[in-house]
């Protein structure tokens, strides 16, 4: 989740749950496997009354044998006994032999474009050579979501940084966002960045990109600098993503509206600006328009439309130009997770990370070609975009978003597919999709065929009968308000080893309802064996390790007891939905996007914005000196630096086992 979602004003205060959770469950949730498989009759009896804290079950209920951490909230990070943690890359570290040494006093765009970027989010290990399963040599692909200038540059505060940023600092912000690709090798126990690798690359705000798909060439995509509407410089707010079967990265742009300046009421399509999430208090966050006028509405009225897409980047070809694939729709993309249907068509799952937004899917028209990588170059330009609707009978239907098909007619404003992808949210509204609680991480489980998706939270969700239908509880989002979030389990038809992720109808379960099981008002739902350290709130990124366990990172838990952390649990068997606490990030930071070597012996995880105390007990950090963290380098007078860490077992065994 981007910084803006966690800082925007919420019209509804946190309050006690005012609707009986049992009433919502009676619509269909209670007949599903999360209750039958985990709790049986004892839990059914507890519906509407919360779950009492229970002692841990015997350790043989879970496949996870590592010593679980105890909940703690401090300025350091923590990992299990018998493991080691290494910082592999930090903001400003060299990625090339000629990279400048990190010096915050002289940092500018040229330096930043040759260094590891800021606030790393999506993280992926790709074995080298491509297609191999090597566990000690590969590429790291890491996105850089956003920047926090007042924690980067001395002398700035949260209130005045926009006016005080120098032109060089603004250019450095443009350079430290985007994506980093770099080669890594394991030497003994430690991982190292290979600075002279032919693969190393930085994607940033100055990188030229193509625009493809239905919106390419549309008049609404044309600018003074690009009268064709097919070229754009840069990518913004790169949150999570996915990897295609042919090895390219799909990077989701999330919240690009925040970097634009000016009066949006000067634009011809004001409704679309508002629907995309314009916030008067959260615009022009990097002062980009001061040095680049295309980021001001009055100067370039179409530039803002050229962001908030999915960008395809080829990490194995540093000369390949990135492409914004407009066929996948325009929204605040948390990510784009990829799998393959039995007939070879590629399926992309996407969450629109805002309150009351939707889950999307894109299915390619044609199958991918495993024998000819070049043949897949434009595969994502043709296919069907759809949006999810959940029903109380335990089914979920994918509703096509196709121009010309009722209700997406020309009379409704959808004369072409360009209209659909440029105004995807309105199209989803019209077909009757289910509004969700800030949908974020999506991950397919390639052992069972199921998919897992995280709803981070939605404090604006209302109890039944308390507001507009879009805002009130529904079967897939059953708590109003929902400050803690939940996980859903989606089940496509077909055998576990051959699931049809392109099918029109899935089954679905509530996998976990987050919160503290000891607090009845939370109405949390985990495996009864969950310990006092194992429960969590605000799930964000998800991953499945080579052994088939589900890993969850959190984004903004309540200040009492713990900082953002990483948990792991089984999805089947006696340990189903029984999370264990594996890693705790420094207070004020966020851990993101775990990724594994093919043998499961190393897990990489990003640590974002160390020092931000937005979710801490005291007031927001407003300067570097108030960052309140012992994260490496800070004590030496350096800014707290977002980092990529890797965790391994002391005996080099499988992580978690």
What does this structure look like?
This protein is mostly beta strands and 657 residues long. 9% of the residues lie in helices and 27% in strands. It is built from ten helices and 30 strands. The chain has helices at residues 3-7, 21-25, 33-38, 40-46, 109-112, 161-164, 167-176, 270-275, 417-422, 424-431; strands spanning 83-90, 120-127, 137-144, 178-187, 190-194, 201-203, 208-212, 231-233, 238-243, 249-253, 310-313, 323-325, 337-340, 345-351, 355-357, 359-367, 383-390, 395-400, 436-437, 439-444, 451-455, 486-491, 505-513, 539-544, 550-554, 565-569, 580-584, 590-596, 602-608, 643-649. The chain has a nine-stranded antiparallel sheet, with no helix packed on it. A six-stranded mixed sheet has the order 8-7-12-11-10-9, with no helix packed on it. Strands 2, 3, 4, 5 and 6 form a five-stranded antiparallel sheet that branches. A hairpin with a 2-residue loop joins β4 and β5 (190-194). The longest helix has 10 residues, at 167-176.
Strand content: 25-35%
Please state the overall shape, judged from the principal axes of the Cα atoms: globular
Structural class: mainly beta
Oligomer: single chain
For the largest beta sheet, what order do the strands appear in spatially? Answer: 13-14-16-17-18-23-22-21-20
Largest sheet: 9 strands, antiparallel
Please report the number of helical segments: 10
CA-based gyration radius: 23 Å
> Mean pLDDT across all residues, rounded?
89
List low-confidence stretches: 2-60
Helix content: under 10%
Q: How far is the N terminus from the C terminus?
A: 29 Å
- The count of DSSP E runs of length 2 or more, i.e. the number of strands, is 30
């Amino acid at each position: 989740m981007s910084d803006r979602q966690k800082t925007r004003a919420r019209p509804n205060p946190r309050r006690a749950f005012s609707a009986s959770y049992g009433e919502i469950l009676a619509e269909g949730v209670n007949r599903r496997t999360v209750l039958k498989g985990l709790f049986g009759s004892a839990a059914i009896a507890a519906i509407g009354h919360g779950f009492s804290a229970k002692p841990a079950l015997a350790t043989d209920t879970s496949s996870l044998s590592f010593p679980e951490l105890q909940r703690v909230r401090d300025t350091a990070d923590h990992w299990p006994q018998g493991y080691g943690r290494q910082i592999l890359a930090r903001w400003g570290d060299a990625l090339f032999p000629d990279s400048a040494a990190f010096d915050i006093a002289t940092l500018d765009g040229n330096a930043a474009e040759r260094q590891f970027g800021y606030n790393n989010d999506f993280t992926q290990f790709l074995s080298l050579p491509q297609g191999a399963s090597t566990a000690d040599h590969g590429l790291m692909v890491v996105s850089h979501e956003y920047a926090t200038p007042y924690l980067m540059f001395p002398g700035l505060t949260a209130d005045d940084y926009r006016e005080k940023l120098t032109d060089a600092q603004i250019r450095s912000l443009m350079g430290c966002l985007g994506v980093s690709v770099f080669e890594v090798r394991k030497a003994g126990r430690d991982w190292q960045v290979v600075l002279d690798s032919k693969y190393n690359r930085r994607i940033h705000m100055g990188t030229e990109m193509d625009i493809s798909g239905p919106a390419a060439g549309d008049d609404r995509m044309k600018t003074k600098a690009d009268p064709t509407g097919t070229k754009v410089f840069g990518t913004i707010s790169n949150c999570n993503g996915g990897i295609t079967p042919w090895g390219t990265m799909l990077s989701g742009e999330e919240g690009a509206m925040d970097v634009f300046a000016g009066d949006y009421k000067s634009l011809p399509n004001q409704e679309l600006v508002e629907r995309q999430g314009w916030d008067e208090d959260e615009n022009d966050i990097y002062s980009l328009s001061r040095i680049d006028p295309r980021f001001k509405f009055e100067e370039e009225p179409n530039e803002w439309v050229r962001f908030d897409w999915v960008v395809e980047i080829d990490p194995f070809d540093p000369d390949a130009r990135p492409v914004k694939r407009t066929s996948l729709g325009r929204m605040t993309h948390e990510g784009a997770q990829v799998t393959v249907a039995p007939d070879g068509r590629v399926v992309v799952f996407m969450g629109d990370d805002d309150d009351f937004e939707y889950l999307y899917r894109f299915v390619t028209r044609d199958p991918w070609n495993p024998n000819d990588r070049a043949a897949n170059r434009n595969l994502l330009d043709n296919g069907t975009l759809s949006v999810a609707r959940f029903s109380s009978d335990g089914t979920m239907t994918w509703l096509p978003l196709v121009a010309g098909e009722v209700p997406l007619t020309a009379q409704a404003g959808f004369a072409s597919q360009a209209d659909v992808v440029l105004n995807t949210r309105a199209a989803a509204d019209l077909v009757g999709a289910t509004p969700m609680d800030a949908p974020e991480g999506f991950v397919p489980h390639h052992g069972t065929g199921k998919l897992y998706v995280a709803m981070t939270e939605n404090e604006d969700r209302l109890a039944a009968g308390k507001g507009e239908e879009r805002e009130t509880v529904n079967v897939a989002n059953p708590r109003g308000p929902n400050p803690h979030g939940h996980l859903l389990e989606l089940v496509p038809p077909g055998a576990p080893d051959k699931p049809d992720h392109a099918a029109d109808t899935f089954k679905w379960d509530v996998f976990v309802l987050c919160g503290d099981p000891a607090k009845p008002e939370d109405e949390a739902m985990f495996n009864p064996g969950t310990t006092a350290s194992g429960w969590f709130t605000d799930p964000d990124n998800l991953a499945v390790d080579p052994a088939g366990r589900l890993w969850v990172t959190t984004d903004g838990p309540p200040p009492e007891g713990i900082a953002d952390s990483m948990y792991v649990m089984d999805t089947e068997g006696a340990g189903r939905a029984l999370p264990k606490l594996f890693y705790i990030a420094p207070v004020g930071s966020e851990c993101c996007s775990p990724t594994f070597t093919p043998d499961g012996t190393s897990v990489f995880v990003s640590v974002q914005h160390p020092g931000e105390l937005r979710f801490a007990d005291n007031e927001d950090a407003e300067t570097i000196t108030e960052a309140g963290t012992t994260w490496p380098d800070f004590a030496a007078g350096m800014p707290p630096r977002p980092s990529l860490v890797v965790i391994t077992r002391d005996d080099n065994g499988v992580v978690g086992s």
